[in-house]
Amino acid sequence: MPTFLLSSLRFFAFPKWWVLSWKSFRALHPISILFLCFPETGFPLLAAEPSPLFRFLPKNGDVAGWFRRGAPRSFDAGRLWDYIDGGADVYIDYGFKEVVTAEYVSGERTLVVEIYEMQTFEGAFGIYARERAPTYMFLPIGAEGYLEGSALNFYQGKWYVKSTAFTDDRETKAALRKMAETVSRYLGTYRKPPPFLQLFPPANRKRNSEGWEPKSFLGCTDMRGVFTAEYGKGKSAWTAFLHACENEEQASARLKSFRSLLVRPAKPDEFRSLGGEMAFGRHRDGFDVLLIVRKKFVVGMYPIRDKELSLRFMREFLARID
Distance (Å, rounded) from C-alpha 320 to C-alpha 273? Predict the structure, then answer.
């Protein structure tokens, strides 16, 4: 074997300086040799098993007149930057595991389907919610989906599915929907939103305003995985939030951690009737915020402007938890 080729194999392909025997090397397919020697091609160094997510991608014949072009691709967390350089960090924050993608064509029309697998249901919902807007046209696909221009996105279970076309004519939009419905069918029958969203009071909640913060909440890094929802009544607007902990003791510790962010703590006399451990005061970002521990949850709202309205809202919020 040529020395330069052996060196390439030793450096690129094998941990701990493993080396193929010449007999084994000759048995490899020429394409496999290319991948071994030149990993910059973007393919695995050794032949990898097909991703389990490939089975969720639409197949030829699933959508009439559309056919898959080329082989599907997959990217794990270590290679996501190769696929969406500049946006990978956000997906990693939400618990990204793997994405598979395939291209489909029909005559001159082209569209791409991407399936992002996240570590949790909350992560899939969170990244979906981050990329939607309340003004989009929402569709009953998966747990929830929307169509905006030539993109149709939805989430279902721990998957976030994105379908994007390069034209936005009626026929292509119809194909986008059929592709999405096909993927949803392959993903299974569980199509419910995260159950903790049901704890938010429905009255005055802004439609499609719910979200999930994975890393920190209002600067408190101890509060990871916080559900939020936007509300409005008349000229008043506020954000409600819910943080689920393992038990009430942990919820109490999280509240104490958040209290350190209050630059002007105040006695929550107006809210004492709600009961439970609470924190109230001016946040370092300049608004008043209220937090209460109830069972294993930390719940609250901000900004506090109308204390009577806030009291009524929090009473209803806590009643849904009790």
Answer: 16
- For the domain made up of 52-187, the CATH class stated in words is alpha beta
3-class state of residue 163 by DSSP: strand
184-234 tens-digit pLDDT = 999 999 999 999 999 999 999 999 999 999 999 999 999 999 999 999 999
E strands of 44-172, at which residues? 67-76, 96-106, 109-118, 137-139, 144-148, 151-156, 159-165
pLDDT in tens, 101-123: 999 999 999 999 999 999 999 99
Fold of 195-321: Protein Transport Mog1p; Chain A (3.40.1000)
Helix (H) or strand (E) holding 180: helix 170-187
Query: CATH 3.40.1000.70: which residues of the chain?
Result: 52-187
Between CA 161 and CA 189 the distance in angstroms is 15
Q: Is the pTM for the entire model greater than 0.85?
A: no
